[in-house]
Amino acid sequence: DAKTTQPNSMESNEEEPVHLPCNHSTISGTDYIHWYRQLPSQGPEYVIHGLTSNVNNRMASLAIAEDRKSSTLILHRATLRDAAVYYCISGAGSYQLTFGKGTKLSVIP
Amino acid sequence: DGGITQSPKYLFRKEGQNVTLSCEQNLNHDAMYWYRQDPGQGLRLIYYSQIVNDFQKGDIAEGYSVSREKKESFPLTVTSAQKNPTAFYLCASSMWASSYNEQFFGPGTRLTVL
């Protein structure tokens, strides 16, 4: 699996956009980029994934750099329910998802 | 409702005892996974199964065993050989094991060995 690097923690004010960065400089051409999030004492929840193009869904947007060495998860309006640990993962097979420590997002009311 | 169930939510065992954690899914998914999470850490893959009657070791399989006799069920046994079994255990499933299938996770079982 390609190794990913994320900040340990970030803060955001409620109702403001949040940009969560991820570096994956050793990513191969066939590796997808996945984002999951985990609330305390719960299982992770899928957020979004992509390969080359930017992706949008009801939860978030994923912006992928042209060289694919980095990506950014965008939450358009942070709510208190978005406070969680966000994991950025890249891998060639879903059974090879390696969850690092992720970024702990705190949302300030 | 479709989803993954894990039972029990909390489990206490004495050192030296084997314990089996349950995982059931009604999503009709072929692939299932077991992960372990220690406090403040990410998830580590224990075992995965791509199809009934087949399973593969993950990164930390030592001291664990699994079976996949039915598509819906993927129980994990934590044996006495596992040196430090106290952890949060998560089961997941996906339609099949591919690079783009999302994984659906259960609520987890917190195992404490006394």
Care to describe what's here?
- The complex is a heterodimer of chains A (109) and B (114).
- With 109 residues, chain A is an all-beta fold.
- Helices cover 0% and strands 46% of the residues of chain A.
- Chain A is built from no helices and 9 strands.
- In chain A, the strands form 2 sheets. A 5-stranded mixed β-sheet of chain A has the order 1-9-8-3-4, with no helix packed on it. In chain A, strands 2-7-6-5 form a 4-stranded antiparallel β-sheet, with no helix packed on it.
- Chain A is globular and about 40 Å long.
- The termini of chain A are far apart.
- In chain B, a hairpin with a 5-residue loop joins strand 4 (31-37) and strand 5.
- Chain B has strands at residues 4-7, 10-13, 19-25, 31-37, 43-51, 54-57, 64-66, 76-78, 87-94, 104-105, 109-113.
- Chain B is mainly beta and 114 residues long.
- The interface between A and B is medium-sized, with 26 and 31 residues.
What is the topological layout?
The complex is a heterodimer of chains A (109) and B (114).
Chain A: E1 9-13, E2 18-23, E3 32-38, E4 45-50, E5 55-56, E6 61-64, E7 70-75, E8 84-91, E9 103-108
Parallel strand pairs in A: 1-9
Antiparallel strand pairs in A: 2-7, 3-4, 3-8, 5-6, 6-7, 8-9
Chain B: E1 4-7, E2 10-13, E3 19-25, E4 31-37, E5 43-51, E6 54-57, E7 64-66, E8 76-78, E9 87-94, E10 104-105, E11 109-113
Parallel strand pairs in B: 2-11
Antiparallel strand pairs in B: 1-3, 3-8, 4-5, 4-9, 5-6, 7-8, 9-10, 9-11
